[in-house]
Each structure stands twice: as C-alpha cells, then as structure tokens.
Amino acid sequence: MQTTHQTALETKHAVLDRRIAEEIHRPLPDTALLAGLKKQKLRLKEEIVSL
C-alpha cells in the first residue's frame, strides 16, 4: 500500500529526474549543479526503497 509520504517522495524524485535531464541538455551544463541534483535524487530513491 502506497502512503502519501511515499507518493510525495516519488513525485520529488520525478521532478529531480526532469531537472537533471534539462540540465544535461543545456549547451554548457553546470556539473556542480548536476552532481547536487543526482545526490538528492539518490537520497530520495534510498528513502523510497527503505519504505
């Protein structure tokens, strides 16, 4: 059964995924920003899996 918290985490994960994709496709991607976004996404994924 999916909780509201889990749904919110999955939504945030999807938003980060889109932001990462947008940044990658820019002419000069900001590698520091990308690294930060990827870390956030990984933390969210780990929290989702632990539920």
TrEMBL record:
Q: Which InterPro entries match?
A: DUF465, DUF465_sf
Name the Pfam families for this protein: DUF465
> Can you say what this protein is called?
DUF465 domain-containing protein
Native source organism of the sequence: Sphingomonas taxi
